[in-house]
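Attaching the record inline, Q. Sequence:
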Amino acid sequence: MAEFSAKTNGKPLGHLATSGWRRGMLAVSVALWVFGSVASRADAPAQADTGPTIRLDYGHGDDSGSAVAAFMYFVPLISPEPVTAVTSPGSTQQARVTSALRRQSGRSFTTTCDFEFHGDGSQQDIFDLARPIHRHEAQLKAGRTLGKQLRAITVSGPGHGRVEVKGIVTNGVETVTQVRLRFNAQGQSSPVSIGLCDIRYLNGGFRQVNEIVARVNTLTFRREPGTPKMEVTVASVKNEGAGNGLFQNLTAGLKGVAANLLIDPLPIETLGNRTMLEFGQALTSGATSFTFPHAARLSQP
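Structure, as predicted:
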């Protein structure tokens, strides 16, 4: 069974571990459970109890759109840990909903909305690992490894995506039952990636070691009884710093296929799941804007 070429360089809180192929795949599954947080200073909330408002122009407005961080604001709503949002200096990244197509057949309906990320720069969300380190401090100092931790989510550069909404009609009332965000529409690669790491106690300090990066294709939210869960698919999994050549990308793609076979639906916060279903309802109704609720776990740099 193939293995990642794991590296341990002992940087202070900065690198991921994975000892084998299957362990690396499981790293994606477990770490995505704490899937991140994004905020927008450009689209700052008007009130303390709300998050940013994004524009839904469906291609009829100007080209400015909303900040990518605002479009992705659902992420802090599902995250159990604090996250700091960092926008690259001089970033011009924007997100626009460019089209909407709604279909109804009998007692079901679908809505498909295309969106695009345009402009230069990146939006990175850095996860605060202090609480998991504190919870496992004794074990770490005893020589154990805290594996498969989510350390960052990055949206880098342009891309094309699609929001796919499904629902049912009961007594004339429409209810959204599923919302899927697809970040690799129109045959383009997803600009969304996650970084994972192991944590060890080395040379008198807690350090991140052995990084891997997974490129995210889709996130799916459903209306179901019990604990809300998010389904995740990835396009590729590779070591941090790996090359971008043909062989490296082919290997990463094969690892991504294997990862998708191992990723179970991941438990998320109820507020985040409900918000995404409400977002799907707004798209279905043709709303021209959508305001997120306040994300309490969001930290500013």
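The radius of gyration is 19 Å. The chain has one domain: 21-287.

More tomorrow.
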